[in-house]
Amino acid sequence: MQKEIKSAVLLIIFSSLLCLTGCSSQKAIKVSEAQEKYWNTLSSNVVVLYKQGKYNEAFKYADEALKVAKHLYGKNSPKVAASLNNIAEIYRANGDYSKAESLYKQAIKIDEKTLGKDSIDVAKDLNNLSVLYRATGKLNEAEALSKRALSIREKVLEKDDPEIAISLSNLGVIYRVQGKFKDAEPLFKKALSIREASFGKEHPDIAVSLNNLAELYSAEKKYTEAEPLFKRSISILEKTLGKEHPNVAAVMRNLSAMYKDMGKNDLAQALDKTVIAILSKKQ
């Protein structure tokens, strides 16, 4: 179980990128257009750098955005919660889970108080904390949060909204790690269908869904079904994010693990060398 959780950490991070940056609803506060634009620019820079795997640079913008949000909107505003989420995402990406957990919980508390317990922003907060718990093996806690996030999104959003795909994917991964393969597969397939309808065939989120299905089939030892999905996922990520992105390494690591299970050690070793080369450049 721990091996499977570890192998999916980078993709876990990527699969929640849509939960990064600004909140979808705000309380009316008198702030100038220039001040609003500055906070939005800072937050946008966080997302761009995060997607590039440049976490240290992203943190500088995220920390500044938090300070600006507190100054402009007050310490209990939804934009403060959004900024806390962004910093937490970076901490999680760097493996500092205790700091990330504390910030996620602060964001949830703020958004529940200011926006209501069934707001979209709360669903995003819950999703992020669920992903953290999933990565650290707290699967029961992760499942409960993921189900609540999915319920909110299905209640508020259209049935084919990409945010619903995020919750479906997260819950599916939890089921897979728990060994509930029959429960996981339809969630992964539905998420893939939503994303293809929203983004087309060549998008990073499509790669995430393909990886999720491939990992499921690999766990079930359905190697002939899993292999082409892993390879297609890698191809999409290389095209859309670049060959040296950490998420390319994450899927390669997953494919390597499958090859080792199959006894194809030469193929696995070749992938492992590429993974090491990619990740060493991110240090």
Task: Summarize the model shown.
The chain is mainly α. The chain has helices spanning 2-7, 9-15, 33-51, 55-73, 78-93, 97-115, 120-135, 139-156, 162-177, 181-199, 204-219, 223-241, 246-262, 265-280.
Provide a descriptive summary of the structure in words:
With 283 residues, the chain is an all-alpha fold. The protein folds into two domains: 2-199, Serine Threonine Protein Phosphatase 5, Tetratricopeptide repeat (Alpha Horseshoe), CATH 1.25.40; 203-283, Serine Threonine Protein Phosphatase 5, Tetratricopeptide repeat, CATH 1.25.40. The protein is built from 14 helices and no strands. It has helices at residues 2-7, 9-15, 33-51, 55-73, 78-93, 97-115, 120-135, 139-156, 162-177, 181-199, 204-219, 223-241, 246-262, 265-280. Mean pLDDT is 90; it is low at 1-10, 12-18 and 24-28.
Give the second-level CATH assignment, the architecture of the largest domain. Alpha Horseshoe
What fold name goes in the CATH topology slot of the largest domain?
Serine Threonine Protein Phosphatase 5, Tetratricopeptide repeat
Q: How many extended strands?
A: 0
Distance between the termini: 27 Å
What's the CATH superfamily of the largest domain, by name? Tetratricopeptide repeat domain
Largest sheet: none
Q: Which structural class do you get from the secondary structure elements?
A: mainly alpha
Which structural traits does this protein have?
mainly alpha; 14 helices; 283 residues; Serine Threonine Protein Phosphatase 5, Tetratricopeptide repeat
